[in-house]
Amino acid sequence: MDKNAKFWSRIADKYAAGPVPDENIYQKKLKVTHEYLKPDMKVLEFGCGTGSTALVHAHSVKHILAIDIAERMLEIARQKAKEQGIENVDFKQANMEDLDVEKESIDVIFGLSILHLLKNKDQVISKVYKTLKPGGIFVSSTTCIQDFFKFYKLLEWFGPLGRSLGFLPLVNVFGSKELREAIKAPGFTIEYDWQPKGKGKRQAVFIIARKPEAGD
Ligand SMILES: C[S@@+](CC[C@H](N)C(=O)[O-])C[C@H]1O[C@@H](n2cnc3c(N)ncnc32)[C@H](O)[C@@H]1O
After folding, report:
1. Which of 10, 14, 92, 114 to mutate to test the pocket of ligand 1 (most atoms within 8 A of CB)?
2. Is the pLDDT of residue 1 over 70?
3. Nearest-CA neighbor of 46 among 102, 92, 104, 77?
4. In sequence order, which residues have a C-beta less than 8 Å from that of residue 19 and are 6 or more positions away?
5. Which of 7, 97, 162, 181 is most deeply packed, by most CB within 10 A?
6. Which pLDDT belongs to residue 200?
């Protein structure tokens, strides 16, 4: 297992036990996402963690493939699915950066609290775009560290040190302007863009983007 997967597996039980940072914000994101879902849809979630969001939306769609690099996160997710009697979500260990997935095969992709934790967000956003059917939807929620952490440059040398000692995950620093540009770059149109006011710019940027319909 690579160091990053080990980090996330190690903190999985604590992560599962912790409260959602802001329940009202989380509920609003679920509600807005729900409006885009239909019973015949195939969904992919990457960086699913302990599966909470996938399990909430499972009743509204046909199938969800939920992937994560951390086996312990997935064990907890599978246990929750079993307890809730949910059978249309498959939890699979995989890295989004090298997931083998058919082009134009998925209706909706969720990437929640994950784009800032990837080696190369641009490459993954482009993969998300290619994987979505025409008219498909990308739902993301992303912490834009550069917007609120003045000393973000410190992470350039602290980050690799923390990772090699195993107490930090891989973190990619960028701001909300760069995030929006990265999402639009492959051809997405942003349909919904919300950065809750709660703790100012510390709040994750919630974006729903659509791939153009065929022929658009
Ligand atoms: C901050 S947690 C977010 C979990 C969940 N999406 C949520 O909103 O609660 C990030 C998750 O992404 C996973 N992860 C990190 N890099 C990944 C990658 N390249 N591919 C798939 N999962 C990844 C981690 O193991 C972790 O479970």
Report:
1. 114
2. no
3. 92
4. none
5. 7
6. 60
